[in-house]
Amino acid sequence: MKRVLIVLLGALGDVVRGFSILPPLKAHDPSLHITWLVEPKSAGIVKLHPLVDEVLIFDRPYRTQSTMQSLPKQLLASVRSLKSMRDVLNAHRFDVVLDMQRHLKSGFFSWLTHAPLRVGFRRGDAKEGNWLFNNRFIEPIDNSVSKVLHYQQFLPSLGIPIPDAVRFGLREAVSDADLPSLLHEERVSAGADQWIGVVMGSTWDTKNWPVQGYIKLLPLLLARHANSKILLLGDKTQAALGQQVAAAMTTDRVVNLAGSTSLKELLAVLARCTYAVGPDSGPGHLCAAVGTPYIGLFGPTTEARVAPFGQEHLVVRADIGCAPCMRRVCPGLDTLCMRLLTPELVLSRVASLGF
Questions:
Q1: N or C: which end of the chain has fewer CB within 10 A?
Q2: Residue 158 in contact with residue 119, Cβ under 8 Å?
Q3: Is it true that the peptide bond before 331 is cis, omega within 30 degrees of 0?
Q4: Distance between CA atoms of 345 and 185, rounded to whole angstroms?
């Protein structure tokens, strides 16, 4: 076992949780060459990880208005992408594949490698026939526990014991030198004993907190932490929300960085924050990976399964019978589970933690 391929293509949160197997793999054999297959949306964070030796990117064609008008062209582009990926995988001659995605696509890529050992999820835990493409399977684990613990089950299949403590190995990837230039300016860096990160949104509409929640919460946090700066964080899709919240504040102690940071800069900011607040989203898992407490605002999702690892106790949720429903679209209650999360409820969690 010298050349290992990890197939975990998707969302930022899943990829970050998958990092938990990297330190044990390298500790077992520092000479292992670890390659990670990922899609473009999460490739940036994989490239940052110091224990990943090589990153392969499956840049599959996405449907746009123009491609939808020409289905044959779309199919041809997909076939070309798959053929190109097949050639790349065959050329690497992997000894082991760890298929951590458990979907049809990841299983197909695992099979394309022709690696003698292809480890994946058992039939009952896999989706879309994924299990058909692999030849060794991890032990089943209850879906009510964290995905991190599920990923850790790949280690015994390689003869590697599960470590007593989970490490992600990502904190070493950034330092204060990687902070965005704005944070080096006098008005932000001077006179602030602590930075508080506030994440503006998630990829699911049902997981987003109403804008008025942020507008009411920020003055409460500023009053509680007299010598602090609040940093509004998020990707480009949350830039407008960050602008709206910042415009509602009457102080320069709130700095809008939403949509203006690279992934490396975001990671550096979160590593520097005293704590962060936000919905169930990728930045929450980045916080867990660098050791920053994250107060998660949860509604449709379950903290036992998807909260930042080790920070399940920091989750704030409202008591409502239909939650968690695990739906991307609210079935008619206008995301009541998130609207019932009051700023005062969030502040009480901050206070209970001694922040």
A1: N
A2: yes
A3: no
A4: 33
Structure tokens at 318: 């409202």
CA distance 85 to 340: 46
Answer yes or no: is pLDDT of 67 > 50: no
Domains of the chain: 3-172 (3.40.50.2000), 179-352 (3.40.50.2000)
Kindly state the percentage of the chain with pLDDT values over 70. Answer: 93
* pLDDT value at residue 72: 63
This prediction has a pTM of 0.90
